Each structure stands twice: as structure tokens, then as C-alpha cells.
Description:
CATH superfamily of the largest domain: MetI-like
Order of helices and strands: HHHHHHHHHHHHHHH
Structural class: mainly alpha
Distance between the termini: 58 Å
Largest sheet: none
Helix content: over 70%
Number of domains: 2
Radius of gyration: 28 Å
Amino acid sequence: MSVATRVETTDPGSAASDVRPPVLRRRSSTRELKRFSANALWGVVSIIVFVCSVFPVYWMLNTSFKPNSDVISPTPQWWPENFTLRNYITVLFEPARPDRANFPSAFVMSLAVTGLTLLICLVFAFVGAVAVSRFKFRGRRQYIIALLIIQMIPGEALMFTIFGMVDSWRLLNTVIGLTIVYLAGVLPFTIWMLRGFVAGVPADLEEAAMIDGCTRTQAFWKVTFPLLAPGLISTGVFAFIQAWNEFLMALIIMQSPGSYTLPIWLRAFQQATQSTNWAAIMAGSTLLALPVVIFFLFVQGRMTGGLVAGAVKG
């Protein structure tokens, strides 16, 4: 008796639901059933998207650790039964030939082009974003519209024009030539993206700092610039991925085997192995993707932390 009394008195919600009319209870249960069904449906869709996204990466890694005889076998192996690192040794230590580069030289070339593109892109994008967000000048609206129009033009439509320009400048097969081409393709989007971050920082913060005694330059560097760190990191990630993985422009600009970047080296490596050593090709693809993963893992924590800090301070 005493236990039943305590349950009834300590659970007023259940007691109230018991006195509701049957129609209300049916409506409530119907809403809960619809909510549960919607959550279950979205959960299934999320799992399907996750599997479709991760499975190619898993299969690339799985294939890179198998002997080539197991790769071409009609029976798929979901786990490398004959685990081997021979494919990575083949990719890393294969000697260079006159008609194609080896992996280390292509890695150094990709690193030089990507690093230079990233550095120059961040500097110019930052200055351009501040100019279109903080200052009003004649032609500002047309400049912003031009940034949008440039992004709509496919790079394939300009490749012959770009090749002619780079050739006339005698910059074929050079890091500077490919860096200029990458900057032309990446810079409009990075300016547009960074412009949103600059516009999101209230100008009142700078004015408050100037009232406290800072000059305009000091207010910008001490107040606004730290809040733009998430934007700089986000645009840096975009520029790094675009420059590291780009294939078409590198193919027409870097024609000499000694100037191949990693995507071009992987294509030449596939042709040299006559498309039969798929295990080595997957090992090369893994090594090609590894720097992007490492770079993203290095900056993603700071990017998230900067976004949270900026939201709190803003």
C-alpha cells in the first residue's frame, strides 16, 4: 500500500496521462510513432551515406596490402589474408626512369606547388576579402559579381588559353607556372569564402578598440584578425586540397617527367605497369591521399575551436 502510494505521488506525469481522454492518448502515441519512424529513416539514410563514403577508402587500403594475385582473383577478399608491404616498397623505392619520375621527386614537386599556392592564396585572399568587406569604393559591386562569374567558368574551357599564356611566359614545367595557374583558379572562391567571415565580425569591435586608444591598424590586428582564424584555416584547407589533387592543369603544364606532380606521377605509374599491378596503384593512391588526411587532422581541431571561440566572442 505504501509503495503504490509513493509511486503515484512521485510520478505526477504518469498520473496526469492516465486521466487524459483516449483520443488525446491516441494522438500522442501517433506523434511519437511518427517521430520514431522519421528518426529511424534518417538513421538508415545516414548509415547508407556513411558506408558509400567510407567503403571506397576501405577498399583502397585493403587492396594496397594484398599481393596482386589476390587482387585480380575473382573471389573478393574483405581482409588481406596474405598481408604484405611490398606494394608500398615498390612505389617508394622504384628507381626513376627517363620517361617518368619516381614517387619522391613527384612528392617534392607537389609539396612545393601546394605550399606556394597555399601561402600566396591566403595572403591575397585575406587582403581582397578585407577590401570588399570593410571598404566602399567605386566598382566594388562589379568586383564581387566578377568573382562569382569567374567561378562559373569551367577550367577545361580555358586550358588552351592558359597553356598558351604559360608557354609564352616560358614557365612550362616550372613550379612558378603551375602555381600561377592554381592561384587563378583558387583565389576567387577563397576571397568569396573569406569575405563572409570578415563581414561576420562586427565593425563595432574595432570602433570600441579605437575608443580605448588603439589605432585603426592596431584594432584590426588585435581584435578582428584573431576572430578570422577559423576563416583562414577553412580557406587554407580548401586551397590545399584543390592544389594537391588537381590533375588537368598539371597534365598540360608539367609535361617533363622531372616536373610531374603526384596525380600525374600516378597516371604515368599506372601506364608503366600496364594497368595490371592494381595493388601497387592502390598503394600509390593511399600515399597520395595521406598528406591531405594528415593536414586535415592537424587543422580540424583548431578550426572547430576557432569557430566556437569566434561565436562566443562575437
